[in-house]
Design brief:
Shape of chain B: globular
CATH superfamily of one domain in chain B: MetI-like
CATH architecture of the largest domain in chain A: Roll
CATH class of the largest domain in chain A: Alpha Beta
Radius of gyration of chain A: 27 Å
Structural class of chain B: mainly alpha
Largest interface: A-B, 79 and 92 residues
Number of helices of chain B: 13
Chains: A alpha+beta, B mainly alpha, C mainly alpha
Oligomer: heterotrimer
Distance between the termini of chain B: 10 Å
Largest sheet of chain A: 8 strands, mixed
Largest sheet of chain B: none
CATH class of one domain in chain B: Mainly Alpha
Distance between the termini of chain A: 58 Å
Number of helices of chain A: 17
Helix content of chain A: 25-40%
Strand content of chain B: under 5%
CATH topology of the largest domain in chain A: Dipeptide-binding Protein, domain 3
Structural class of chain A: alpha+beta
CATH superfamily of the largest domain in chain A: Dipeptide-binding Protein, Domain 3
Number of strands of chain B: 0
Radius of gyration of chain B: 24 Å
CATH architecture of one domain in chain B: Orthogonal Bundle
Strand content of chain A: 15-25%
Chain lengths: ~525, ~300, ~280
């Protein structure tokens, strides 16, 4: 618009007094404006560990945390009463040095480590902080996503600064999982929350962990510095930088060129193959504790008919997905639990790839062809795996439409429970209650994660809560798995397998199965 | 002086319009920021509490009124994801985006304007044809595609430049090293535009009577083109730079994504998917105001270039 | 025909005709279905069965590109039609009626022009969810102010022309005047702008798809093919490369057409070709 008027003006100029010097000054001024944005040069570089994360962080408050990037950063900052051993997943002491469980299984007494201090001078860690942390999660005012996980707590007492006693409403054989260092299990400081404030704490976290939160540059990086006073000894690197690099190809090039040290969240099969083949870096892999599932909403026609759900199960060529698309970087799943769970069983109904049987089942159920929305979040690889699934379903006469939603919209749609299908995996520790209660309990109906609207195991869930002893537990959890997999509220597509790569400079790294990583044991060798 | 005042009031009205447009643009985006913040296990009560805190439960016109009132004081609310003031967040990313945009534009101007003049001077020659064909392809290949290809060539294969378009720490030279690829790709794609437009502007001027007279009087052709014609074409060329500035800001979003470079563009993209109302508003607003400001500055520059416009 | 003496225009017309034929004949000339996956044969190199190889799902890349021509042309034509009709009406009303109508319209256009077009399209697609219709509407709305601006400018130059004055003197109605004289005379320059907007629409569609905000997968659009192939640039560069070339060819064709139209249709425009942007 303006350009046109200018051109008209220009057309009328026959002779003009151009002042080149003035024009030059203007350009120079522009260059100056641009130049003033340069960050100041850094001084001599201390040992800094640079870790790639695939998307930005947003909230590090343990009561409200979710998403693996947040959880990975929080892992460096916070401790729990107990924690999972990185290598074996066994529950081992963390802030608690030991614990006693009463004969009836309802009273847990934890002896706390003494001499532990909070980051940034927020004083000593005491039993009161533990009481505060858990009561904060339970307080409806906090609006914690994890209050359900601690719902079995009746009261918390602090007889002394280094003792905390937790009384449960009823025995809960899986209680130690709930107070392990992850999500609601991370302990926060009463003093720090009081002074910093509930809202600001999310990005100014104060913990007792090996690294101290320094600052966060949105979209760019998170900087943590070593906690020299860490109770288990100072970490071996001075600083950890989590750098946001979305694209995996770019991250792989950056890793091979030494622009970053650790590649967290490695998913792309071809990138994994390339990094492995290149021999320039070390690639770790490990089975995760979660499966990725296609959830079928049983409240929506015709998915209410178990034969239709079984037909869909038969129609999907899961082996081809793992071999062809994932190039063998994921494992086959027989049920919704992975073999890393103590309670896992493979004695469940199986529905191998069989399009003819799928068609027969659909015919038996009296549904011809129908339209089905496959709803997936816009994140790799979930937005990709629905493509071959849609193609498989088309082969048996189901017109599958792919709906990839942005994360916010996806969560909203899924929690409304109106989506006919969705892709869900419950990431976390090998605590079977976590996926079972989240995915299949009536109490988790939307807005919970039970998008399937499945209610076939209410009696078994109650039985599991009261089961005492490993054998009884294994039996009842076995029944749950068999019942669920016969009813097919979800189709386990694959068992997740985690990959992480680092340069040869990195030493001492241990991969865990929680889909996080710890920088504490890592040291950097001189190049 | 009068002109300056008129321009300032025009600027104020435009900025107010931009504020209004951004408000309504963002309200059309579906999704619920409360849901995003609280995550998978959030209860309906917790969501409702948060929505009330954010004012999302009020009618749109109330939200708009409050928005304008606060905008006047420079308060564009807080990012719902980070809790920090939205404007602060955006201004924090402004240097990154400004460096990329101006560096890209500088490359584009340095390449585009001389090439545009050259091709106009040699209209119809082989070099004109060749440059114009290259420029045609330059505006026809998607800019992100050029970016991807350059990462592959210059980072992976040749290892000349880093794959990441921004460094963390390091000196001036380190930053410059990281900037070369993103600014180069952006600059070359915009240069193609500037070349084409500059050539047209020069051809137009070369067709004017005064130039014909100068030629008829035997003034050497080089002098005609580089002195007389360029002087007359400077104003339209400045206008071209103004028009391409908005264009290059749009391309910069894609460049930031390709090179994993922080900036307003990648921040807006993230905010759109996070349903971060305030942040999208502030980001779109800042970019639009930047376009208006740059064009206003160019308007003032016409006055310097052509004294007749400033006295009028 | 004077158009055909312009080699660029001729090339543009030939290319576009070819692309149009490919788009119309897609079901017959595509060797395979663009959607059918074959996980036993993913990321295959070019072969007799798959001239451009297969993608990460084992789909035939050539077939996807052929079908993609349809969607890209659809986007181009729809954006052109929408932004042209909307922009022309707005611009003509502003330019012809003048007064406060013009002042308001011009301010609104000025404000909308301050938004980088791609940013505006991005925000609008996010607002409507990503689909083919969203992309078309978003890009068309982002271009409407540009068309309107040119239309108004053209109307302003036509308005004082003597024959318009003459028609008015003989008592022609305003509407009739608008449609009989102003609209036909303003068509050439506006069509040139629309050609440019169609070219940019194709680039915008590719950009939005690249960001994951474009036409939903598995639809075979060129932007989706580039986005799909992005992760395999190192191992299978042909996927993204060939889609990039398809986009470039169509955009080049549209630009050649636009340049040719500008140079031949309207001698006045030729002198001031910089205007079209």
């Amino acid at each position: 618009m303006d350009g046109i008027n200018r051109k008209e003006r220009a057309g009328r100029i026959e002779r003009s007094g151009v002042n080149r010097r003035q024009f030059g000054t203007l350009l120079a001024a522009g260059a100056l404006v641009a130049g003033s944005g340069w960050p100041l040069p850094a001084s001599a570089a201390p040992p800094v560990l640079r870790v790639r994360i695939g998307s930005d962080i947003g909230n590090l408050d343990p009561a409200r945390i979710f998403q693996i990037e947040n959880q990975t950063v929080a892992t460096q900052i916070f401790n729990g009463l107990v924690k999972y051993d990185e290598a074996s997943n066994a529950i081992v002491p963390d802030l608690a040095t030991g614990w006693d469980i009463s004969g009836d299984g309802t009273v847990y007494s934890f002896a706390l480590r003494s001499g532990v201090t909070w980051h940034k001078g927020f004083g000593p860690f005491t039993s009161d902080d533990v009481k505060f942390s858990f009561e904060r999660v339970l307080d409806p005012q906090t609006g914690s996503s994890y209050s359900g996980q601690l719902a079995s707590i009746k009261s918390i007492e602090t007889p002394s600064p280094d003792t905390v006693v937790i009384t449960l409403k009823e025995p809960n054989s899986g209680f130690l999982h709930k107070v392990s260092a992850f999500n609601q299990g991370w302990i926060v400081s009463r003093k720090a929350l009081g002074e910093i404030g509930d809202k600001a704490f999310a990005l100014n976290p104060i913990g007792t962990g090996p690294f101290v939160f320094q600052n966060w540059a949105p979209g760019r990086e998170v900087k943590l510095s070593a906690n020299k006073d860490y109770f288990a000894g100072a970490p071996k690197v001075e600083e950890v930088q989590f750098r946001v690099i979305k694209d995996e190809t770019a991250a792989a090039i950056a890793l091979e060129n030494g622009e970053i040290d650790i590649f967290f969240g490695l998913q792309q099969p071809e990138v994994i193959q390339r990094l492995k083949g290149g021999g320039l870096v070390t690639v770790h892999d490990r089975d995760a504790n979660h499966t990725i599932n296609l959830v079928l909403n049983t409240s929506i026609k015709p998915l209410g008919d178990v034969r239709v759900r079984q037909a869909i199960y038969h129609a999907i060529n899961r082996k081809a997905l793992i071999d062809g698309f994932f190039k063998g970087t994921k494992s086959e799943a027989s049920g919704f639990l992975t073999s890393s769970f103590q309670e896992f069983t493979d004695q469940v109904p199986l529905f191998p790839y069989d399009p003819a049987k799928a068609k027969a089942l659909l015919k038996e159920a009296g549904v011809g062809s129908f339209t089905l929305d496959l709803v997936a979040p816009g994140a790799n690889p979930y937005d990709k795996i629905v493509v071959p699934i849609a193609s498989d379903l088309a082969a048996v006469g189901i017109d599958a439409k792919i709906k990839v939603l942005e994360r916010g919209a996806y969560l909203q749609a899924r929690n409304k429970g109106t989506v006919p299908t969705c892709i869900t995996g419950v990431v976390g520790a090998p605590d079977p209650d976590s996926p079972i209660l989240s995915l299949f309990a009536k109490s988790s109906f939307p807005p919970g994660l039970n998008t399937a609207h499945y209610e076939g195991i209410e009696d078994l869930i109650a039985a599991a809560r009261n089961a005492q002893g490993d054998a009884a537990r294994k039996e009842v959890y076995g029944k749950i798995q068999a019942k669920v997999m016969g009813d097919v509220p979800v189709i386990p597509l694959y068992a997740d397998h985690l990959y992480i790569a680092h340069t040869k400079k990195v030493s001492g790294f241990v991969q865990n199965s929680l889909f996080t990583m710890s920088a504490y044991p890592v040291s950097l060798l001189e190049a | 002086m009068d002109r300056l005042l008129r321009q300032l009031s025009q600027l104020a009205i435009t900025v107010f319009g931009i504020v209004t447009v951004t408000f309504f643009l963002v309200r059309m985006i579906p999704g619920d920021p409360a849901q995003y913040m609280l995550g998978d296990y959030a209860t309906e009560e917790a969501l409702a509490t948060l929505r009330a805190q954010l004012g999302l439960d009020q009618p749109v016109y109330v939200q708009y009124g409050l928005y304008v009132l606060r905008a006047v004081t420079g308060d564009f609310g807080s990012s719902v994801v980070t809790g920090r003031p939205a404007l602060e967040e955006i201004l924090f990313s402004l240097p990154d985006s400004a460096i990329l945009a101006f560096a890209g534009l500088a490359v584009a101007v340095a390449i585009g304007i001389p090439l545009g003049i050259l091709t106009a001077e040699r209209q119809g020659s082989w070099s004109d044809m060749l440059i114009m064909i290259v420029a045609l392809f330059g505006i026809s290949f998607p800019v992100f595609w050029l970016g991807l290809a350059s990462v592959l060539l210059f980072s992976q294969e040749l290892k000349w430049f880093p794959a990441l378009g921004a460094s963390s720490g390091g000196g001036f030279l380190t930053h410059l090293h990281h900037l070369v690829l993103p600014a180069g790709v952006l600059g070359i794609s915009v240069a193609a535009y500037i070349t084409r437009l500059t050539r047209s502007a020069m051809l137009e001027v070369l067709g004017q009577d005064c130039i014909r007279v100068a030629r008829a009087m035997g003034v050497p052709e080089r002098r005609v083109v580089w002195r007389l014609a360029l002087k007359n074409a400077l104003v339209p060329i400045l206008a071209i730079v103004g028009v391409t500035f908005a264009w290059s800001l749009g391309s910069a979003i894609l460049i930031e994504v390709v090179f994993s470079r922080p900036g307003i563009g990648s921040m807006i993209l993230k905010a759109v998917s996070a349903r971060d109302y305030q942040l999208v508003q502030a980001g779109v607003l800042v970019l639009a105001v930047a376009v208006v400001l740059v064009n206003s500055l160019l308007d003032l520059a016409y006055g310097l270039v052509d004294p007749r416009l400033s006295t009028r | 025909m004077r158009y055909f003496r312009h080699p660029g225009f001729l090339i543009g017309v030939i290319l576009l005709t070819l692309l149009l034929i490919v788009a119309v004949a897609a079901p017959w000339i595509a060797p395979m279905s663009p959607l059918e996956t074959d996980l036993a044969n993913t990321l295959a190199p070019p072969s007799a069965a798959h001239l451009l190889g297969t993608d990460q799902f084992g789909r035939d890349v050539l077939s996807r590109l052929i079908w993609g021509t349809r969607i890209s042309l659809q986007v181009a034509v729809a954006v052109m039609a929408l932004s042209l009709s909307l922009g022309m009406v707005i611009g003509a009303v502003a330019g012809f009626f003048g007064g406060w109508v013009e002042r308001v319209t011009v301010s609104v256009i000025d404000i909308l022009l301050a938004f980088p077009g791609f940013l505006l399209a991005l925000a609008l697609v996010a607002a409507r969810g990503s689909s083919l219709e969203s992309v078309i509407i978003a890009v068309a709305l982002a271009f409407t102010p540009r068309v309107a601006a040119v239309m108004r400018a053209v109307v302003l130059t036509i308005k004082p022309r003597t024959y318009v004055e003459a028609s008015r003197a003989i008592g022609m109605g305003t509407m009739r005047l608008l449609f009989l004289h102003v609209v036909p005379n303003s068509l050439p320059p506006v069509i040139v702008v629309a050609t440019v907007s169609a070219a940019t629409a194709i680039l915008a569609e590719a950009g939005l798809s690249f960001l994951g905000l474009g036409v939903q997968p598995p639809a075979p659009t060129w932007g989706n093919v580039i986005a799909d192939g992005q992760s395999f640039l190192a191992s299978n560069p042909l996927i993204s490369l060939s889609a990039g070339i398809c986009i470039a060819v169509m955009v080049v064709a549209l630009n050649l057409l636009g340049d040719g139209l500008r140079d031949t249709l309207d001698p006045q425009m030729r002198r001031s070709s910089g205007r079209v942007l």
